Amino acid sequence: MVRTQIYLTERQRDELSAIARASGKKQSELIREAVDHLIVQASSSRRESVLREAAGIWKDRTDLPDFKAARTDWDRN
After folding, report:
1. CB atoms within 10 A of CB 25
2. pTM
């Protein structure tokens, strides 16, 4: 693990301390869990954003084969 120093507001520190006491976990463990949750959430958002950007990128291409005709031909065989 890598040691990292962060600044919290007094309210954040107090709430984190209360959650730690109630859950029996260390504050550092709770912070790591929160960071992991944020990473998963951001990763999902990035993935969705990339997919949205990629949607329809070939719609105006004229150099591609007629996929509907090819699919129809495949389905008949």
Report:
1. 13
2. 0.59
